[in-house]
Description:
363 residues; Catalase HpII,  Chain A, domain 1; nine-stranded antiparallel β-sheet; globular; disordered N terminus
Amino acid sequence: MQKPAVPQPHSSRAASWVLIAAVLALAVAAIGCVGGWLAPHRLTPQKLVDQFQRNAGTFPGYRRNHAKGVCVEGYFDSNGNAQAYSAAQVFAPGRTPVVGRFALPGSNPYAPDSSVPIRSLALRFTQANGQQWRTGMNSMTVFPVATPQAFFAQLQAQQPDPATGKPDPAKLAAFFAAHPETAAFRAWAKTAKPSASYATERYDGLNAFFFVDAHGQRHAVRWHVVPEATKADSDAARAGDTDYLAADLARRLQQAPLRWHLLVTLAEAGDPTNDATKTWPDDRRSIDAGTLVIESTTPQDSGPCRDVNYDPLVLPDGIEASDDPLLPARSAAYADSYLRRTSEEAHLPGTAAMDAKARGEAR
């Protein structure tokens, strides 16, 4: 269970959390209104996060999605190739420090690593001018649905039946029939298998954004990172080992830093920027913007990623959000999840005995 890193007097700590909560609540409201999806009688971030909890349970102090993960640190070494398309300082030649997080999708921080085929990578780039770029990527080629409402309906269809403990096949079938846009994701999922290493995965930023160059011209883009490491340890996922990904990552980093190339794809006229279920044609121009280097890993309950909300709308000058409706929904839901888990860790005792008991009960 996550715990505050530095003890504070109860009164000052409580005041700090109240202030943080107030600021984030305003941010949630502002983002929701701008996105047009947070309105009376419509979907709200609270409803989305509540549904995650219904599906997998509530684990106090943990993220409501991508709950199981590890912190990583390193840097991005820009080669300057993306400077012509974005004025963001991160793309100037040189290094930008990075705090990241590898994780599994889902709300259960004790889920076996082999339970899902998807791995995620979230990154926070901190520029020399203080501005940040935060992004979340996944090891899949498309997102299942295109709108927050459809995603909420998907979560509802996946809610376990109390009688069986598993989703109702009839409800899932009805959802897929009503949402033919899920076909591309379902085709990918049929052949996807849980990998034995975070280090050998390609991670895609499935949403479109705009790079803005020094002249103010906007360029629609998507990005992904491609690993230099390609060999997975066949012995990593031993039978009965539920946590092999973190161990494999630590072992690899003891030997050498891990590297990925950040590739930026430029859209052409007609390529959709508002639909994460659709890929762009393979012949679109791709730019190698530099190398992501991961140097170390630490547990998420004490590492530098613990208190980071990887909000995809935290962007530096030179990068702007597209018209993808999933972006404001993700941002608002992340803020709600952050408020919940940090208020819980601020009030719950965090003794080793209680943490051990929680782990045992969760399994």
